[in-house]
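Field reference: "sequence" (input) and "structure" (output). Example, AGAP010422-PA:
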Amino acid sequence: MNYLFFAESMTLPSGHFPDSNFLEEDRYSPGFLTLGQKYSIAIGSTVVLPCKINETENSSQYVLAWKRDIAVLTAGNVKVTVNPRIRLMPVQAHTDPHGSLSTGYNLEIRDVRNSDAGDYICQIGSMEPKEIVHTLEILVPPKIDYISPSNKMDIHKGAPIRMECRASGNPTPKIVWSRKNNMMPNGEANKTGNVLDILHANRHSSGHYKCTADNRVGQPDTREVFVNVLYPPEIEVEQPTVHSGIGHEAQLVCIVHGEPTPSVVWYQDTTQLGITEQFSQQNRGNKYSLVIRNVTYSDIGNYTCQASNALGKDRGTLSLSGLPTLCYFDAPTLSSYRDQYNISWTVQSYSPIREYRLFFRLASKSMHLLHHENPLDNHIYSDRPATNSHLYSSPFSGSNLKPASNYEARVQARNDHGWNKLSSIFH
């Protein structure tokens, strides 16, 4: 018969000592071939805790037992616990190259749960029990238990925004906030931490915010919050001055933001414009357009786009002009001659250019008129190209200039609607 001894339950009367033969036998009791270690196992999986001992002549006198805390799970080949997920697995006897025989019992735990975490002791029952300890850690995938707001948040412009996300799991999950198809309001890709604060909401704060909990066990858990910032209309004019010409088409564009979505109306001066054969209104997303077909003289002038919602209104002003655009120089900055310089410029105009005025000065001197030409009479421009881009270019050769000196130049052009503004200074 095998006997099972546990150190914690064994006491001797005062003045008595164990029999010397017993101590001699205990000296030759089996020893462990397995070292205790820590096992980190995902919840729901199966783990096998090993316990291998070396076989001795007296091995049959000792019982190998598995315990958890003070609870006995197995004794020898007998399963004591009623837990159906625990199974005792005999170790197949094996002889190593030195002739030593090993045996033992492994403990299998199936479908591990959080409650299975802790220390498992494999013990050889003897006068002085020998034991190894395996520590079982249960790894639990992340799960977001709390998120606030739960789904959608409506917030007024200027108000603070606070979002909070908490998750459980083992190890403790890391919480990372990100934004769907956009950067975070501070310009970063994401932010780590349970709480995400935005001090002052604006229209750029709107969007889907995603909380991701990850502890590298299983798949990350994610939840989303939609932030909807309410604010009065804000208008950006795409092009304050639109150049066109008689008989051509013109398009005036306002970029309109607002929540709730604003309604947009167009005015020419103080007259509200409807949809006619002459005028059409289009919008695509935040882009609102007024299209003027077959521009007439009466269409040249000032326009306003006005947007309004329940929180307020805004307006943007635009100008439809028949004037040439600003001229720009396309000549090199250095001349190949000491006292001569060949200069040229380009301008866009939807009606013929009638004349140019070219101004020049020595750097740091006052500007004065260098050249005044009627291009229709003197033919110093190229006619409209076939691409219908309405670009005109003109060359000019300045002579008798001060050698080795820096000059500055500006130019302007006139068509049937008048003079455009002076160009930027050319150095």
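The chain is about 5% helix and 50% strand.
The domain at 238-321 is CATH 2.60.40.10 (Immunoglobulin-like).
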